[in-house]
Amino acid sequence: MNKIIQCVPNFSEGRDLDKIEQIVSAFRGKNGLKLLDYSNDEDHNRVVVTLVGEPEPLKAAIVEAVGTAIRLIDMTKHEGQHPRMGAVDVIPFIPIKNVTMDECIELSKAVAQALYEAYELPSFLYEKSASAPHRENLAKLRKGQFEGMAEKVKEEEWKPDFGVAIHKTAGITAIGARMPLVAFNVNLNTNDIEIANKIAKNVRHLSGGLRYCKAIGIELEDRGIVQVSMNMTDFTKTPLYRAFELIRVEAMRYGVTIVGSEIIGLVPMDALIGTAEFYLGVEDFSHEQVLEKRIME
Amino acid sequence: MNKIIQCVPNFSEGRDLDKIEQIVSAFRGKNGLKLLDYSNDEDHNRVVVTLVGEPEPLKAAIVEAVGTAIRLIDMTKHEGQHPRMGAVDVIPFIPIKNVTMDECIELSKAVAQALYEAYELPSFLYEKSASAPHRENLAKLRKGQFEGMAEKVKEEEWKPDFGVAIHKTAGITAIGARMPLVAFNVNLNTNDIEIANKIAKNVRHLSGGLRYCKAIGIELEDRGIVQVSMNMTDFTKTPLYRAFELIRVEAMRYGVTIVGSEIIGLVPMDALIGTAEFYLGVEDFSHEQVLEKRIME
To answer: Inter-chain contact A283–B260, Cβ cutoff 8 Å?
Structure first.
């Protein structure tokens, strides 16, 4: 694969393994496409699929998988803990290699259009593909969920980007381009959740912290400690080490120290290489010096 | 490529670009093989080639390139600053992916045998492939250089592993398996070379330091500072951060601090990911979580 785009479609079926396999089968054995992972959650009643591919094969496979999902999933009968508004809840496209964000935006729009033409499935464009700033955030788009969506899309500010009304059984889908997310959690040597909450508040963008950082405090009850749980939404601009070092400093105020960290799920190599470069103070390093990058070229 | 071995053959021709191209052409356009880099040095009169490949294609291409080198290079007329003992001076094999060190040792022996059968080119097995501990070190094998080698190989302890006498025009070649080398230099905010020399002495294996670290002091005259210049000979056992942090501590004694570092040439991704893991204190991280590793699989 020359150009590599990552795609992480979320389908609203987490219980019926046969249906899940039918949906995922669209991503198997295709040229220019690779299925990396899929994991279903029964409580959420949702399956999260991770694949990478070149733009055209990715588009074709997504259209195929969404067709299967629309056929198999009836949102009027769907229940689950995770907020959702469609049989295919969200389809993000993420630039990985030899691909710009603009190309991912273009792909997201082409996919949204193809899905409307093939299945009359309406969609919101979100994140970098959004048609207005108030439509960037997935949580805001999804508010009201499937059950409230038929009414919501009648409002001018929530008019779908493709289509007009929701699909009767498949609802509506959010489609867009975004940077890779890194789920990065930092553990503290205290069991005081208030301290984790305060530190989370100080490091996150929402309340005055780092631009590309979302954070909440979490209790790890079995270990008797707390954690600042973060989503790093653009590690190229807000690197992991910056959040880590800021938490270290903020924690000092409470006489608390960091005892470790976690990276959940997949992480782009560059996020870790950038961290190593920072701590070793490496001068004039090109990522082309990384052997595996050269092999992948 | 499923199994990936890196090979860095050194040929004793650094001036005649036409001859260099003829030698390197063996590594172009072959299935299961990728030429990553080659750079010649006129003073050294030597070209260093970096390639990766699966064992069999790698072996075939090396045998072809060595045949060309023997035809084009006459060591009786060779001069250059770099120590050398053969038209093909050294051929190291390095495990990169889905390959054990034992498989690289096996390949090095198979290549040595093939080169003797094809061209009557004798060889020493070195590093992990060495037939005795005193034959592991390349510098010791090469001592006496091409000009002294005809006599040296008559001594029992320097008997070639393949062949008996040297090749009249191509000399003898060192062939073996080794870990990837990382050339890692740490810069200090002093111009006192004695301080760099003392720190180098303290961190290197030879004089009581880290097991897989070679180090010398170097002056960076244009910047008015000095450097501890290192070869990390097994970053999986002596990681980069350990040398870096030890230098930091040793430097404190002289009131000196680290101002930066350099990584020269190619570096395996795992060397940098391990560094990031250390500084962020990441718990339970699997390198399978690195997106690019998953894509390469």
So the answer is: yes
CA of B5: which chain A residue's CA is closest?
Answer: A295
**pLDDT, tens digit (0-9, with 9 covering 90-100), for B70-104:** 999 999 999 998 999 999 999 999 999 999 999 99
Domains recognised in chain B with CATH numbers:
4-177 (3.30.990.10), 182-296 (3.30.70.670)
Q: Find out whether A225 and A187 touch, Cβ atoms under 8 Å.
A: yes
- Give CA angle at A79 (A78, A85), nearest 5°: 65
Mind listing the pLDDT tens digit for each residue in A122-158? 999 999 999 999 999 999 999 999 999 999 999 999 9
Token code pair at residue A160: 């779908």
A282 at B interface, C-beta within 8 A: yes
| ipTM, two decimals | 0.83
pLDDT in tens, B165-175: 999 999 999 99
Check CB contact of B244 with chain A, cutoff 8 Å.
yes
Residues 6 or more apart whose Cβ sits within 8 Å of residue B32: B1, B53, B54, B56, B57, B58
What value does the mean pLDDT of chain A take? 96
Interface test with A, best of B247, B290, B296, B297 (most A CBs within 10 A): B290
Provide the residue type at B24 as one letter: V
Residue B56 pLDDT exceeds 90: yes
Residue among A44, A82, A134, A205 flagged as catalytic: A82
Q: Supply the DSSP symbol for B246.
A: H
Mean pLDDT over residues A238-254, rounded? 97
Q: Do B268 and A244 touch (CB under 8 A)?
A: no
List the single residue in B284, B292, B296 with the smallest CB-CB distance to A262.
Answer: B284
